[in-house]
Amino acid sequence: MEPVTMAKAINLSLRDALAGDEQVLVFGEDVGTLGGVFRITDGLQKTFGVDRVFDTPLAESTIIGIAVGLALRGFRPVPEIQFDGFVYSAFDQIVSHVAKYRNRSGISMPITIRIPFGGHIGAVEHHSESPEAYFTHTAGLKVVAPATPGDAYALLRSAIADPDPVIFFEPKARYYMKEEINPSLEVPIGSARVAREGSGATVIAYGPTVSLALDAASAAEKENISLEVIDLRSLSPLDMPTILASLQKTHRAVVVHEAPVFGGFGGEIAARISDDGFDLLEAPVARVGGMDAPYPPSRYEKLYLPDVDRILEAVDVALAYG
Amino acid sequence: MADVVQVVGTDDPVRPLFTAAGELKADARNGLGLDAAALRDLYQKMILIRRADQEALNLQRQGELGLWGQYLGQEAIHVGAVAALEANDWIFPSYREFGMAMCRGVDPAEMLTWFRGLSHGPWDPRKYAFAPLAVPVATQVPHAVGFAMGSRLRGSDDVVLGTFGDGATSKGDWHEAMNFAGVFKAPVILLCQNNHWAISVPLAKQTAGSIAERAPGYGFPGIRIDGNDVLGVFAAVRAAAERARRGDGPYLIEAMTYRMGAHTSSDDPTRYRLDSELQTWSAKDPIARYRSWLQGQGHLDDAAAAAIDRAAETMAEQMRSRLRAAVPAPAGEAIFDRVYERPPGPFIEEREEFEASLEGT
Predict the structure, then answer these.
(1) Cβ-Cβ contacts under 8 Å, B144 against chain A
(2) Chunked mean pLDDT (size 10), chain A, 322 residues
(3) Within this chain, do residues B41 and B141 fall inside the same structural domain, yes or no?
(4) Which of A185, A214, B28, B296, by CA, is between 20 and 30 Å from A256?
(5) Selection from A105, A133, A128 nearest residue A118 by Cα
(6) Bridge partners, residue A143, by sequence
(7) Which of B118, B127, B145, B149 to mutate: most A Cβ within 10 Å?
(8) Do A175 and A296 lie in a common domain?
(9) For residue B106, what are the domain limits?
């Protein structure tokens, strides 16, 4: 197969899900005729018709609200939230209903909410956020974030097939990264992967920061520092065995995400490592992320977001212990 | 009763049934096609759900329930709306619709386990076509519209009733859902139970306009009717449902009523409303009105009325005893059982640790 972009891989995944299960519905703002502002749903309405791939009015809360009603009616809704910063108006529906409906009714909510997230695209305000921790904090949801086209394809198939609600974060800055994908490979929700093997320290990343971590590992190699990179793929549930297996080798961990560090998902990873792997550690778990300030004007985003240097500084600090 | 609303378009089978004041016209009342038994059944249901409401309040006062939200005064809407629907037409309630749930056959004792702190969802919504309660105000309205959109996609002729109070119409979800209903021509009846109070905030402070009049702005008709007339509610919901079943889309019914009780058993309405207002509405009590009409028609003699009252007492006794006999589920089951259909490994581990920690306690 020709290498495809992540955008195309997600498109193919949606296409295959729509073709494979007639209960699957794709809807949201501009996803129909236009094919989405990122063209992720390009051509789907043409193939599957306006009943299964449709534009909605501009109202995120009710986009998710109708997903609940459609799921009760037996459908498998795959709504799109156009940008990370717009999901907040749907927060009540997601937290109060999508996540809890099964708990109060016994009826599953096989809803996959796709959300492009993260920065590095030079956008205006509200288009570069990383709201994942709001959702990992909510019981009843599963939260995933692929980092490669192949994983995006496979994880989305898993998410749509899952009987429970899944928040599917797409690293929009990586939409145009290309690789060959194998549609027959399965990636179950809850499985991390070792993106690069190493022995000196473990860099734990997800979504857009995985390729950044790999860049850091390449740079470190030149200084004879061997970094292992874990791509979490799934934030909730979290694959602790893969993290702990890595720490058996490296004894040092650096977590990297774009979201602000305080209250961010890195804190949960650090706490879990301290719970389950305290004896393995030679250094405190370091966290590298965005600043504890609102996402800045785009001219400043490169300084705000984690970069290779900040990862390597955190690695140096970790290596200085013991 | 306020003036009936001018509606955009001509396709409105509801409006001709009502006077400008929102009262069911005499010929419409006589043309409902309900025989004496069916008319008495509406009365019996109102008596039963009022008795259940009173019993639940008593049980709360006795410490058997953590809370109760009375629907006293709103029985005509609960009974009339459900009677106008087919059994497979889903209803999406807010949190004061236990009378509707009973009309759908939900066991009142089972239903009260919600207020007893034993369950977030005591009934299987699929069995009764009755959705779980939605406490965050107005959030159920998008669900009703989404379900109705789904019915349309399925090519089914079932319709959906989404119900809510006057306070809900201030919320974004309500407006968004109204808009979706219009755009997708969803087969949904949007039933506002305008009981004049959202906890302590009166209608005049809730909204400066008419609720029913908003419907044409979303592309479908709306009407304000007397919500204390069970036959009026029945007629309006049935005509709106038939219209939706034909594929003509949504309809908004604003049924004017009054919350005779407190917001909940935790509330004290003497802090914010005048007793005289309550007296005014007591005179419009939906059950007393309907009883005298039935008697006037010769459909309800004293013996029949007494039998219905006895049935209500029997039901209340069963409610009490069955509620007190309700066996709480084991904690592990109550907390963890219904969260995920496919529970993740860490979630299962947490449950196992929790259950192990309870052993021997």
Answers:
(1) 69
(2) 95 98 98 98 98 98 98 98 98 98 98 98 97 98 98 98 98 97 96 98 98 98 98 98 98 98 98 97 98 97 98 98 83
(3) yes
(4) A185
(5) A128
(6) A167, A236
(7) B149
(8) no
(9) 15-328
